[in-house]
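Researcher: Next entry in the queue.
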Amino acid sequence: MNITVVLCTYTECETLAKALRSVAMSKVPESLGWEVLVVDNNSDDQTWMWWMNTARNSLAAFVTYLSRSRANRMHSTAGY
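Model: Structure for this entry, 80 residues:
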């Protein structure tokens, strides 16, 4: 079985960081495939910069980050 944890965010950089740390510490059976999908709905704080400069390197193995820019284009950083 595979599961996807979806975290939706809008201008919640600090809350997102806490949520991702919590998910990363989860104890999941090795037989369970899982991933995290972060959907950033055009945050106007530092959420995107935090992801690009800090979290992406340490969480990229299991997180895909989607962000809608002000130009309404989807940006993705896939975790694989």
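Model: The longest helix spans residues 47-59.
Researcher: Noted, moving on.
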